[in-house]
């Protein structure tokens, strides 16, 4: 038996021993034995608790558990209790003392065993044993022979199996350590998970490796193809579509009139490498050339604009182990939401994901498995990035990244890693990549201050003003003039922006405007794609499920729900943030000019003409469709604009709507949908839309006021009843009500609560007492034409307050049984108000746990003042239950912005609300207090009342959890304000 008692590899800095040279991930028709499935498993508590002879072929593992490979062992048992350890979440901090390269003695270690049969026909004498992902360090024995050990969790490791593999029964034994020196290099913001989490196989060894070089000359339209093949023996290249048959792969083959690869036209030429042994390897060749031209990021001679997301692999039940279907779901969701780029933050994904990017068309920033952020709190003291002892480990990660993924046309940029400070090891990794592959650019955000070894000036979370300065080339200078000059010659990207945690991000359209205004700005990537919530049951016998986040597994240090900051909810339902992003980045922009009776279509594509889209128009009168048709838009070239006059049928529909005298708003909506099926969506899928108000609403009829009459204990005004003392509306017709009264508080969003770069907004709000305001009624005064209630809203201990005057008027209304009641609220700050208000509106409640809600105004989803681009005016029907947005940590949500009118059909009656002219509307089955107190969705239960918020305005959402707060126009300052709303009921 070989040495399996030495565990030095766990803590030494070596990236591994006994491994084969890294190479591309590719399929071959040589036989492969897939070893995924149930393995025998035992979890040892540390190196002192290992099973002595576990690697011996005859070791009896019959009593051991069965564990699926691939899987993350901490995810086993979910959504019930985790069976092996538990997931733990930290963003920056290591979950153990920082003492590199040492790791804790308590080091959970998985012992895995798997028996498998090798058929006689399998070429056992020339085979490799391949691990596609093992977290974080492991050692391998085949039939009792130690093959080696490895680190670099999200990279492939191969061992030479020849000599150990034999026909018939084989036993593979693998020891996997949760912590290793490698953990210091894998401090990405994510759950700490362990195990053999990607596939394992034994593959016959044939062609060793190859590197496809496929460039495109946009001036001549010529493609150049050369494939460097590492033997053994003679290998030929065939690409039938290009007329290449049995040729020398090295060529170079120059092909006229080739169609280039891009995100929009991901043209792949199918080919194959054929070895003299008969082995065949399929190739998918995409021709493209990446270049920086005059400081602009171009592909195939044209500037590209990255409308991207940061994706790191996630599934709420399996963690970082994903099926092909989940990867495909991600790619399709991205494409369907107009996303054209993905940064594989912060490690190389399962290589099949990159195949999908090649196939469906996504630009990829392919990132190395590297982050040492946990050294930052210690001032980067002992940071591996600048310590020669770690140089080999850094180079190893860069080499394995590039070698594995080098044949993907979608990969246009290599990224060294993330948040690892700066240092010679990063520079060395960049230098190695540059000499190995000069066809792509090199990215690493951490080098932004000097940009001495990167090709892109990359920033994260800067505000729009700074971004605009970068766009103009006016960023603050670097220390070194040479670096400074170089940096100013580089294109700039936002490798992370728009932190999508909870309700938000706000302000995406501001970013997009700046990006589109400056050629230097190559776009960016939202942080991040998906919320990393873990599906759990509420209790052993309580199978209500919820999404767990940091701290829910009793971690000693953790970062709470900072792990839930994606555009998708954990179950991959798009969040309002993704719906907003889709609209903000739409690749054609449709503008409607009602005055000129024209529609303009601006094509923002990189290479695609607009001809693949069908344009359709719809006219809606008060939200009801009254006409629709198709719109002939000339095929518009990328960068060009077409203007279309309104066609006759559209004009006729509008004329009819104008004449019908309904007095409603008439809107024209134009959509651009796929004319034919694409690989990523079916014909009819909507890509972009534009909307214009063609006929504004008629002014509402004047209000003949009724007198308010004081009775014993109540005041009557039309069909409304008010409590004499509180001045609150308690009844309207038959409907029992409670309120409305001024409300300035909201259940804090994550962006309200956290502040990565500034004091969180919540601090000032709490200091001002905005979460504990008292509503003091000063006067309830009925008169001949209505009722005036005056009050003051203020917090205990504070001399500042808000004076509020509620002026109620009523009339009997045009229909019998329907009375109109109008509320005008005037708010005047009193004393010093240096803090913005979370919201400004009135709150009330009515009986019920759910209700149908129909409204006319923007929708269908929630919208806030700085995240409202995706909401379009229409008539929508929903329910209170469906109008709640289930953010992983409950918080303010569900606002319908600038609603014109709404009808709430509750068990106790129907309430009609009309904005005068518009009002923000939120209805929920629980109070703000309950919403704010809930840690998870299952903590919320309807309390028997429907809580209604009618808001004049909200404070913007911003992105302060990690980035800037709302921009100045989206700050809700406490200034004098007046707003009005009307109520009526029907039985
Ligand atoms: C960035 C980091 C990401 C993530 C994000 C906050 O600084 O690169 O990995 O932590 O902040 O969610």
From TrEMBL:
Q: Which residues form a coiled coil?
A: none
- GO aspect biological process, one term: lactose catabolic process
Name the UniProt key words of this record, in alphabetical order: Glycosidase, Hydrolase
Q: What is its EC number?
A: 3.2.1.23
Q: Return the broad EC class.
A: hydrolase
Stretches that traverse the bilayer: none
Q: Write down the SMART domains for this protein, in alphabetical order.
A: Bgal_small_N
**Sequence ranges assigned to domain Beta galactosidase small chain/ in this UniProt record:** 716-984
**Which Pfam family, just one, is annotated for this protein?**
LacZ_4
Keyword check for Hydrolase? yes
Q: Which reaction does it catalyse?
A: Hydrolysis of terminal non-reducing beta-D-galactose residues in beta-D-galactosides
Q: Which GO CC terms are listed, alphabetically? A: beta-galactosidase complex
Which superkingdom?
A: Bacteria
GO molecular function list: beta-galactosidase activity; carbohydrate binding
Report the InterPro entries cross-referenced here. B-gal_small/dom_5, Bact_Beta-galactosidase, Beta-gal/glucu_dom_sf, Gal_mutarotase_sf_dom, Galactose-bd-like_sf, GH, GH-type_carb-bd, Glyco_hydro_2
Protein family membership? Belongs to the glycosyl hydrolase 2 family.
Name the record gives this protein: Beta-galactosidase
Q: What is the lineage of its organism?
A: Bacteria, Bacillati, Actinomycetota, Actinomycetes, Kitasatosporales
């Amino acid at each position: 038996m070989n040495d399996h008692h030495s565990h030095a590899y766990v803590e030494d800095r070596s990236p591994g021993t006994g491994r084969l040279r890294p190479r591309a991930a590719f399929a071959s028709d040589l036989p492969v034995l897939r070893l995924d499935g149930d393995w025998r498993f035992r979890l040892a508590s540390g190196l002192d608790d290992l099973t002595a002879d576990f690697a011996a072929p005859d070791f009896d593992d019959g009593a051991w558990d069965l564990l699926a490979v691939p899987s993350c062992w901490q995810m086993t048992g979910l959504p019930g209790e985790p069976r092996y350890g538990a997931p733990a979440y930290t963003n920056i901090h290591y979950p153990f003392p920082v003492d590199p390269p040492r790791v804790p003695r308590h080091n959970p270690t998985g012992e895995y065993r798997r028996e498998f049969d090798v058929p006689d026909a399998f070429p056992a004498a020339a085979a490799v044993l391949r691990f596609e992902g093992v977290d974080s360090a492991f050692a391998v024995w085949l039939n009792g022979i130690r093959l080696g050990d490895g680190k670099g969790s999200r990279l492939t490791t191969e061992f030479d199996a020849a000599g150990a593999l034999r026909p018939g029964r084989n036993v593979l034994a693998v020891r996997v350590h949760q912590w290793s020196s490698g953990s210091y290099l894998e401090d990405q913001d994510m759950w700490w998970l362990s195990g053999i989490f990607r596939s394992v196989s034994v593959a016959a060894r044939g062609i060793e490796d190859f590197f496809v070089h496929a460039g495109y000359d946009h001036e001549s339209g010529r493609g150049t193809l050369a494939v460097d093949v590492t033997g053994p023996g003679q290998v030929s290249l065939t690409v039938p579509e290009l007329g290449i048959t049995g040729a020398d792969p090295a060529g170079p083959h120059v092909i006229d009139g080739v169609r280039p690869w891009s995100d929009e036209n991901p043209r792949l030429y199918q080919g194959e490498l054929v070895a003299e042994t008969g082995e065949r390897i399929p190739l998918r060749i995409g021709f493209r050339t990446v270049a920086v031209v005059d400081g602009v990021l171009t592909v195939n001679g044209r500037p590209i604009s990255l409308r991207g997301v940061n994706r790191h692999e996630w599934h709420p039940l399996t963690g970082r182990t994903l099926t092909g279907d989940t990867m495909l779901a991600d790619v399709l969701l991205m494409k369907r939401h107009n996303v054209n780029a993905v940064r594989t933050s912060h490690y190389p994904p399962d290589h099949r994901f990159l195949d999908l990017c090649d196939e469906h068309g996504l630009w990829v920033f392919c990132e190395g498995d590297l982050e040492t952020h946990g050294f930052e709190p210690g001032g980067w003291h002992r940071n591996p990035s600048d310590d020669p002892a770690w140089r080999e480990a850094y180079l190893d990660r860069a080499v394995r990244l590039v070698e594995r993924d080098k044949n993907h046309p979608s990969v246009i940029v290599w990224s060294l890693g993330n948040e690892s400070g700066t240092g010679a090891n990063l520079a060395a990794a960049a230098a190695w990549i540059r000499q190995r592959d000069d066809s792509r650019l090199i990215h690493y955000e951490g080098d932004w201050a000097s940009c001495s070894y990167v090709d892109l000036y990359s920033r994260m979370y800067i505000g729009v003003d700074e971004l605009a300065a970068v766009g103009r080339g006016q960023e603050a200078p670097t220390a070194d003039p040479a670096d400074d000059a170089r940096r100013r010659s580089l294109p700039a990207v936002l490798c992370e922006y728009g932190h999508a945690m909870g309700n938000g991000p706000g302000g995406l359209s501001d970013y997009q405007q700046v990006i589109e205004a400056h050629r230097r700005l190559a776009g960016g990537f939202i942080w991040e794609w998906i919320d990393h919530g873990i599906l759990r049951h509420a209790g052993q016998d309580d199978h209500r499920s919820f999404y767990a986040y940091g701290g829910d597994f009793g971690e000693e240090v953790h970062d709470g729900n900072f792990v839930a900051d994606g555009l998708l909810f954990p179950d991959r339902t798009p969040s309002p943030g993704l719906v907003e992003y889709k609209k903000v980045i739409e690749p054609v922009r449709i503008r409607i000019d009602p005055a000129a009776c024209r529609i303009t279509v601006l094509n923002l594509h990189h290479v695609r003409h607009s001809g693949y889209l069908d344009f359709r128009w719809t006219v809606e009168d008060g939200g009801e469709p009254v006409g629709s048709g198709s719109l002939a838009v000339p095929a518009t070239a990328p960068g060009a604009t077409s203007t279309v006059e309104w066609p006759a049928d559209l004009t006729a529909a509008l004329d009819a709507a104008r004449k019908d005298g309904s007095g409603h708003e008439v809107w024209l909506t134009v959509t651009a949908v796929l004319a034919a099926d694409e690989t990523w969506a079916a014909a009819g899928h909507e890509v972009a839309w534009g909307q214009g108000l063609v006929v504004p609403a008629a002014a509402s009829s004047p209000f003949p006021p009724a007198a308010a009459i004081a009775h014993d204990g109540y005041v009557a005004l039309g069909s409304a009843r008010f409590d004499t003392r509180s001045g609150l509306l308690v009844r309207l017709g038959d409907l029992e009500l409670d309120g409305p009264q001024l409300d300035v508080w909201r259940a804090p969003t994550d962006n309200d609560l956290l502040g990565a770069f500034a004091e969180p907004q919540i601090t000032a709000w709490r200091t001002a007492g905005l979460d504990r305001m008292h509503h003091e009624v000063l006067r309830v005064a009925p008169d001949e034409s209505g009722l005036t209630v005056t009050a003051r809203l203020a917090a205990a201990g504070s001399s500042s307050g808000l004076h509020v005057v509620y002026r109620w008027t009523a009339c009997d209304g045009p229909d019998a049984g329907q009375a109109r009641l109008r509320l005008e609220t005037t708010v005047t700050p009193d004393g010093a108000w240096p803090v913005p208000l979370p919201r400004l509106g009135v709150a009330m409640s009515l009986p019920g746990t759910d209700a149908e809600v129909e409204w006319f105004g923007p929708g269908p989803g929630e919208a806030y003042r700085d995240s409202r681009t995706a909401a379009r005016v229409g008539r929508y029907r929903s329910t209170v239950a469906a109008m709640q947005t289930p953010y992983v940590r409950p918080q303010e949500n569900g606002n319908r912005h600038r609603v014109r009118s709404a009808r709430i059909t509750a068990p106790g009656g129907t309430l009609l609300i009309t904005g005068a002219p518009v009002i923000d509307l939120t209805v929920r089955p629980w109070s703000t207090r309950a919403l704010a107190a809930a840690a998870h969705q299952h903590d919320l239960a309807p309390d028997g009342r429907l809580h209604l918020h009618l808001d004049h305005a909200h404070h913007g959402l911003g992105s302060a959890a990690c980035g800037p707060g709302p921009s100045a126009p989206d700050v809700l300052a406490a200034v004098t304000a007046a707003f009005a709303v009307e109520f009526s009921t029907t039985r």
